[in-house]
TrEMBL record, chain A:
Gene Ontology annotations for the cellular component aspect, listed alphabetically: plasma membrane
Protein's UniProt name: Quaternary amine transport ATP-binding protein
Entry membrane topology: Peripheral membrane protein
Keywords linked to the UniProt accession: Amino-acid transport, ATP-binding, CBS domain, Cell inner membrane, Cell membrane, Membrane, Nucleotide-binding, Transport
Length: 399, 286
């Protein structure tokens, strides 16, 4: 994975006595102390992170956590007090006025929380704004803008004004405007926070859908953990201007770094995030090509199980055999397992969220088998491991 | 105690200082003559057009402009009022006075727009300029308007031009203030949006700030125009002709009748100017 954006020691202090505040922060003084002494507010302190190409990187935090300040430093709407931002290895922080303008025009665009559409411009004019200021002729820019509006699913509103559109529609325009100049990076500042829950979910789906074929690098700000977990490839949690944890949604759910993150994720519906591969355990298996009934029975006895999973030499899933059938085979002095193989075992893929399996898991007595694309057995899902994962405890990958 | 007493007995010579300042200014006679000629040219061209227009054509033009300005919502009442009002002014024999007053107001309005709007924008962009200009505006607005007449006469002579100058000084502040306010009120996220797409300062001003500030800005212009109109009687004291001088003469002759009829003519003109500029402001789609 290539690093698209690298942020190094980024700090922003608001106020008049920035120098003094910087000294104090290096001495390890608290933000309240700095505010009291120098009347300066520390927005972001010593942020270090990378954003990979083509990922959705979510910066999450409550209000006052510095996330909006941070995102505004990335396109230098706010000048960083300290630190460096690199785009493809090139320093954004060193750009002069003209370079910065070119960078904003071609490389990075922004979508705003309250849409920030220009009320005096029609939808098509709003969408084409970024191209207009670059001097693209009217026909070309309107055609491109029209394509972008179609892309975000807004048809027939080209000549309307923003105040004639609903919130969801307005943010589609905001998104289309951000896409129109074909940037490499899209900054989305709480882009869906002003929308009602239904619209928000729809826009999240749209964004994921768009991202699957546009492949932009998206830096998304959110205060909503469920949203972050839903759309983020990786999530960075911020608090009081500092980074608390960076990781994939599953990382954060399974290994919260401290009490703060733990408290944050308390109310999350884990079943939506956790996938089959996260809750599966490694079963003991027998190889149908070399093992016989006695091996199977011993394995079951060792594990206190009444059944065992069966694979071939390449670990392809074959099915399951029950203890009573094995015992019967032994009594009958037969060696083959093929005849007693049960194939009515429920199976699933490793990426399936466990939410969609919960119903079936509760109904069937046998564990789910998790198979890869080539039908190889990766693991099985038993009820206790699902419960453990939902409650936030680590699944033990035994065996 | 004795010192304090002598201090109160010996006035600080402010008046002398101001007089010598005005005297000092008169040495730049070429500069002030230039301004006088320039403003005089504007005044004359307005007056030339108004004198050229037949009364009926003038009335039709006013009605036409009103009709166009009101394009969405037709207030026929205003147009009927204009028709009756203008005919009445003609009937009372104040037609030329009315056009002279209109010339004074339009010339002043033109100048306050040309000076006031850029100054208001500059104030919004630069804190230093704001700190300097604000007290000057306060001074201009609170100083009694009569006072301006004195240096205006010294520097620009008598007639329409010093009248225009005095009107401009009096009616400039609201245009500057409202422009400044309008630009400052443009929502932050729109500014950020304009910046984030890489607008230059000019592009941001022309494409975003001015269009959004337009309504506030236009009400400043409207206010300025009304203030300029309120100066016509005062301006007539230094020789600005028009309805104002009719009122001024009526005061001298103690003639309430002609004073009020000329006054009514000013009111009619004021209402027409006010409503038409407001109509321009309101009905333009944003």
């Amino acid at each position: 994975m290539t690093k698209k954006v690298e942020v190094k020691h980024l700090t922003k202090i608001f106020g008049r006595h920035v120098g003094r505040a910087k000294e104090m922060i290096n001495e390890g003084k608290s933000k309240d102390e700095i505010l009291a002494k120098t009347n300066s507010v520390v927005g972001v302190h010593d942020a270090n992170f990378d954003v990979n190409e083509n990922e959705i990187f979510v910066i999450m935090g409550l209000s006052g956590s510095g996330k909006s300040t941070l995102i505004r430093m990335l396109n230098r709407l706010y000048e960083p007090t300290d630190g460096e931002i690199l785009l493809d290895g090139e320093s954004i922080t060193k750009f002069d006025k003209k370079e910065l303008r070119d960078f904003r025009r071609k490389k990075m665009s922004m979508v705003f929380q309250n849409f920030a559409l220009f009320p005096n411009r029609t939808i098509i004019e709003n969408t084409a704004y970024g191209l207009e200021i670059q001097g693209v002729d009217k026909e070309t820019r309107h055609q491109k803008a029209h394509e972008c509006l179609e892309l975000v699913g807004l048809h027939g509103y080209d000549d309307r004004y923003p105040n004639e559109l609903s919130g969801g529609q307005q943010q589609r325009v905001g998104l289309a405007r951000g896409l129109a100049n074909d940037p490499e990076i899209l900054l989305m500042d709480e882009a869906f926070s002003a929308l009602d829950p239904l619209n928000r979910k729809e826009m999240q789906d749209e964004l994921l859908d768009l991202q699957s074929h546009l492949k932009k690098t998206i830096i998304f700000i959110s205060h909503d953990l469920n949203e972050s977990l839903r759309i983020g490839d990786r999530i960075m949690i911020m608090r009081d201007g500092e980074i608390v944890q960076i990781g994939s949604p599953e990382d954060i759910l399974q290994h919260p770094k401290n009490d703060y993150v733990e408290k944050f994720i308390e109310g999350v519906d884990r079943t939506k995030i956790l996938t089959a591969s996260r809750v599966m355990i490694r079963p003991d298996v027998i190889n149908i090509e070399k093992d016989g009934p006695r091996t199977a029975l011993r394995l079951m006895k060792d594990n206190h199980n009444s059944s065992v999973y069966v694979v071939d030499s390449e670990h392809h899933f074959k099915g399951l055999i029950d203890a009573k059938d094995v015992i019967k085979q032994i009594e009958d002095d037969k060696r083959d397992l093929e005849s007693i193989l049960r194939t009515d075992v429920p199976t699933t893929t490793p990426d399936t969220p466990i939410k969609s399996l919960l119903n079936d898991i509760s109904k069937t007595s046998v564990p789910f088998a998790v198979l890869d694309d080539n039908d190889r057995l990766l693991g099985i899902i038993i009820r206790s491991s699902v419960l453990g994962a939902i409650s936030g405890n680590e699944v033990q990958n035994n065996g | 105690m004795a010192n304090l007493f002598s201090l109160t007995m010996q006035p600080i010579p402010f008046a002398d200082w101001i007089n010598s300042f005005v005297n000092w200014l008169t040495q730049f006679v070429g500069f002030f003559n230039g301004i006088t000629d320039f403003i005089g040219a504007i005044v004359n061209s307005f007056q030339w057009v108004f004198d050229l227009l037949p009364v009926w054509l003038f009335i039709i033009l006013v009605l036409g402009i009103t009709y166009w300005a009101l394009h969405d919502s037709k207030h026929w009442g205003l147009m009927v009022f204009e028709l009756i009002g203008l005919v009445l002014i003609y009937n009372q024999g104040y037609w030329r006075d009315m056009t002279q007053t209109l010339t004074l107001v339009l010339t002043s309005s033109l100048i306050i727009v040309v000076i006031g709007i850029p100054l208001g924008i500059w104030m919004a962009k630069s804190h230093t300029v704001k700190v300097i200009v604000k007290p000057i505006l306060d001074f201009m607005q609170t100083m009694p308007a009569f006072v301006y007449l004195i240096p205006a006469v010294a520097l620009f002579g008598i007639g329409m031009v010093p009248g225009v100058i005095a009107s401009v000084i009096f009616s400039l502040p609201p245009v500057v203030r409202m422009t400044n306010l309008g630009i400052e009120q443009v929502p932050t996220d729109l500014i950020e949006a304009a910046d984030s797409f890489g607008s230059t300062g000019w592009q941001k001003l022309i494409k975003v700030e001015l269009p959004i500030a337009k309504n506030t800005l236009m009400s400043g212009v409207n206010q300025g125009m009304m203030l300029a109109l309120s100066m016509v009687v005062i301006a007539s004291m230094i020789g600005a002709v028009g309805l104002g001088s009719e009122v001024y003469f009526a005061v001298g002759r103690n003639n309430a009748g002609s004073g009020f009829t000329a006054g009514f003519a000013i009111v009619i003109l004021a209402i027409i100017l006010d409503r038409v500029t407001q109509a321009f402001n309101k009905n333009k789609k944003h």
